[in-house]
Amino acid sequence: MKIDLGPVTRLEGHLNVETTISNNVVEDARCVGDMFRGFEIILRGRDPLDAQQITQRICGVCPYAHAIASSYAQESAYHLKVPANGRILHNLIQGANHLYDYLLHFYQLSALDFVDITAVLHYKGADHDLVKVKEWVKAEMASGKPYPAAPFLPRLSGRYVDDAEVNIGALKHYLEAMELQKKANRASAIFGGKFPHATAIFPGGCTQNAEIDLIVSYQSLIVEVRDFIHRKYIPDLVAVAGAFPEYWEIGRSKGDFMSFGLLPLEPGPDSRRLFAPGILADGKVAPVDFSAITEEVKYARYSSPSGLHIRDGELVPEPGKASAYSWVKAPRYNGRMVEVGAAARVLVDYHQGNNEQVKKLVDHFAGVANITPDMLNSVLGRHLSRAICAAVIADFVLAECERIEPGKPCGAEIMIPAGGEGYGATEASRGALLHYIRLQDHKIEKYECVVPTTWNCSPRDDKGNPGALESALIGTRVENPEEQIESVRIVHSFDPCLACAVH
User: Could you tell me if residue 130 is inside a domain?
Assistant: First the structure.
């Protein structure tokens, strides 16, 4: 039986997942990106300083990550000496953006896969917001409309949390999380200029000076976000995990794990980072080698050669390609499929012992849930990894504020050379993000982006091996093949961004 899950909602962009079901088991899965955009083509021949602005338009959720990756690539190509304040301001902007994205993903994009919205119908309290939700749900259910045009209904059939207190608490926090996301975005915009699509981020730092009143405003906003993370987000996640312990086993991908490292502690591409970079395979971590990354296109709608290295990348669309089923390429590391994202970021760091706080949190929650760290490769593991990242990043950016030196330069002097090339690697909230730039006659000759969802939602590679999400779906038992709430929970755990993947 062939079942299409698309269009899959509560994610960024246009994703279809084609599944083949036999005896209530997913025998095959294909991730389909149904759109072509062509940002690398747009960038050719432009002023290099356009890059960190234009690439932000790849995504309205994580634009800062693209601006930072582009800035890193240009810093390398221009051989810039980045001042300490410039690095710190980049970190403050990107860190706050991560916090926004984790809250958005759990509450607005994933929680409703587990939390019972109808529990609000039985709520006897006087909470103003929930009373409004209760009235709305009643009206929608009584309307007889087959497809209510609102975020909660209709919903997939299946088991949901049956603890009334957990449901009501999560729904209240669903509403509160929207306000906290605004605060995180305001914090990013203090130094980034605006959200989305910052105007102040440049190679070597920011155009916004680090003034005392701005630092204090940033801190006050992040303190509120950090409080919500510890008092509400993490307890809600733990409660959901307690109700669905089987999801520590469901949704395991079948590849290696890769992280490019996040939030440098010093200026320069080789600086130690808050989350360490690395490639985790067979329980061992090795340094990332960008030359080992290629992009295969046998099953992608491109006629350009397959297996090209990033610096040689080409983008020749072929909509009618017979063997293809997606506009997403298939990146591979030494020919192997890898998963990127929060779980990869935490596992890569944990196995290196880079960050003591990461290790303590992983060990603590592994004990609470009675799991081993390798079980972060799962639906619940990806959710827990985001919460761990949120806790660590919130503490870090507050500490970074204390390291700013007001009055010192916040950006580098930029002189664009006639030629040169550079890589810029960082971690978007969804995982490893790489930008490559090459200059000729002071203009962009070639630009290439390899983004997180290109890895996770890749189609088959030239050998027929599935991407990370496809591999996590294959073998999953589903109760209702027509709806597959189990498969949807797996998809959401990766937090796909197809807008990025089909850039």
Answer: no
Looking at the domain assignment, is residue 148 inside a domain?
A: no
Distance of CA 349 to the CA centre of its chain: 17
| Sites in the chain below the pLDDT cut of 70 | 145-151
Residue 220 domain boundaries: 2-116+160-501
Positive or negative CA dihedral for 467, 469, 475, 480? Answer: negative
Query: DSSP alpha helices (H): ranges in 355-460?
Result: 356-369, 379-403, 452-456
Domain count, the chain: 1
The alpha carbon of residue 415 and the mean position of all alpha carbons in its chain are separated, in whole angstroms, by 33
Closest CA to 493 of 387, 394, 393, 395: 387
Whether omega for the bond prior to residue 317 falls within 30 degrees of 0, making it cis, is: no
The CATH number of residue 112's host domain is 1.10.645.10
pLDDT at 270: 85
**Residue 74 covered by a domain:** yes
Q: How many CB atoms lie within 10 A of CB 378?
A: 24
Do 288 and 260 form a contact (C-beta atoms < 8 A)?
Answer: yes
SS3 label, residue 205? strand
Sheet holding 420-428, edge to edge: 420-428, 431-440, 443-450
Contacts of the segment 130-133: beta carbons below 8 A, 24+ positions apart: 130/168, 130/171, 130/172, 130/175, 133/171, 133/175
57 lies in a domain?
A: yes
